[in-house]
Each structure stands twice: as structure tokens, then as C-alpha cells.
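Checklist before submission:
- one chain only
- standard amino acids only
- sequence pasted in full

Submission:
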Amino acid sequence: MGFCGTQYINEMRFWFLLALIFLAVLVISILEIFLRRKNKKKIAPAVISASLSALILIPVTAIIVILVLPPYPPPRYVDPMVDLTGYDYNYCKTYYAEYFDLSVSGEEYSNEYPKGTIIRHEPRAGAHIIRGSTEVRCVVSKGVRQIVVCNVIALSAETAEKMLAANELEYEIKYVPSEEYEEGIVISTEPERNTEVPAGSTVTLYVSSGKE
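Returned file contents:
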């Protein structure tokens, strides 16, 4: 996990100066051609002279800009956004502090990502971000949702099934003989009632099959 291939942005300062030089040479060439035509002199030498001037002035200006002038405004860097999915939020916030500002936009329960890890983020992985100037918003996992096993003892198996399903729990039925409960009534559960279990867990219903 890391950045690669940084690209330097010079705020168009260099190309702006080159454009000014080129424009100046172009204006001088046009004026020289106009004056030569007015004085009935040959045009070709003027074009050659202007071209040579441009070939000399542009590289010289480029060297001066690169070596002499200070970078203003400060140079910025463009980086591809890394994939933070599945990594611990606190670790990423510290490790990438100089690259972007990481903040939490929300939290969600997740069966896939452990508590405290990043589920998704914007900008997404691969998007171009400006180093030190980009805010990255992420959704952090709250871990697996915990469900309390509801009390279904002494209820019919059908009612117990509906209650467990409404609480995001799976179920299985095992029939056992009972002297106390009528046939089709839940005797007990495993895990026991009021126990916290991850959402989607299977609760075993022990249902009376009647007297032996």
C-alpha cells in the first residue's frame, strides 16, 4: 500500500512565459515583414531572422525559468489514490497524513470488514489527488452486528421462526420429547435467550414432539 509515479505540476508558469516570448517574436516578425514590404525589401530574410530569434530565445528562457526563478506558487504533486479498503482507519490517518486529510463520513455494520477498518472511501482508488490538499472521506466498519436472541420459549415453532427471522437470525429445529410442553411448542434454544450473537447466526430451536 503506497503512492507511486508522482507528477510535478508547475502551475503553467513556465509555459506562460514561453508563450509570451513566442508572441513577442511573432509580433516583431509581423512588424518587420510589414516594414520590409513597405520599403519593398525582400520578405524571406525577415522570416528567417524571426525564426532564428525564436529558436534562440525560447531555450534560453526555459533555462532561466528552471534554474533561476523560485517556484511560486509552491509546486504541487498529483498522486494516484491508494486503496484503503480493509485497512485500519487510525493507521491510515496517521500514515497518510502528509498525502491527504482522512476523515469519517459514516459507520456501518459489516460481516466482511472487522471493526475499525475502512469499508469504502471517496475519492476511490486510482483517482488523481493533489498531495496535501485533498480530503478523503471514508465509511468505517462497526464490526458484525450483534443480535440478542429473543425469548421464544413456550411459543409455537412457527411463531418462533418468524421472530428469529425478523431479528436477522437463522434457525434450525430439533424435536425432543417433553412431558411439560405440548407438541410443536419450543422448549429451549441454543444459544439461550438474551444471549448476544452475530447477525445471521443460527439458533437451534428444541421443539416438543409430545410425550414419549
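Reviewer check: DSSP finds four helices and eleven strands in the chain.
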